[in-house]
Amino acid sequence: MVKVLVLPGSARRDSFNKKLAAVAAKLLTEAGAEVDLVDPADIRMPLFDQDLEDAEGLPAPAKVLKEKFLANDAILFVSPEYNSSITPLMKNMIDWVSRSESDDEPSLAAYRGKVAGLLSASPGALGGLRGLVHLRSILGNIGVTVTPKQFSLTGASSKFTDDGSLKDSGDVKSVKAVVEALVETATKLKG
């Protein structure tokens, strides 16, 4: 069974990306994956600071998140777009998880051999698409295999029901396509 970490890039209580992550987590379970859905609000960490790292090592929340990366075969990033890029929160999580904790730990150990899928949601007309371009580039440069299929939910403020489900079956189908591509690729690579 493939293990998938679902990581939203927003800690906001009513985040559209957290809602989309919950939809994707359900679809991942239906696709046969074991799912670990993270709420970034539960993993608060300082901004990456090498002086802090040198003095104290990885902060405890960063260690928790890094362990989750190491324990899973794939990561589904569900990232909002801020000013045409990824959120500071998402970048900070990526940066802390990338750090080695000892001299004998391989560089980027939490990312090597991982597969990633990309989703975004935004009230805007592009659905966070511009941020996914940057996220794809960052992940590809640190050794992550990013599946080609991705989805950006446009007009997200009107796309969810009161219980957090997606209203439109076409949107569900698009999320499902990303989820299935992620599970399929991770299964093949896990081999």
UniProtKB/TrEMBL annotation:
Alphabetical list of Gene3D superfamilies matching this protein: 3.40.50.360
Endpoints of the signal sequence: none
Domain NADPH-dependent FMN reductase-like: 2-155
Protein name per its UniProtKB record: NAD(P)H-dependent oxidoreductase
SUPFAM superfamilies in alphabetical order: Flavoproteins
Coiled coil (UniProt feature): none
GO cellular component terms, A-Z: cytosol
Annotated InterPro entries: Flavoprotein-like_sf, FMN_Rdtase-like_dom, NAD(P)H-dep_reductase
GO molecular function annotation: FMN binding; oxidoreductase activity
Pfam families, sorted: FMN_red
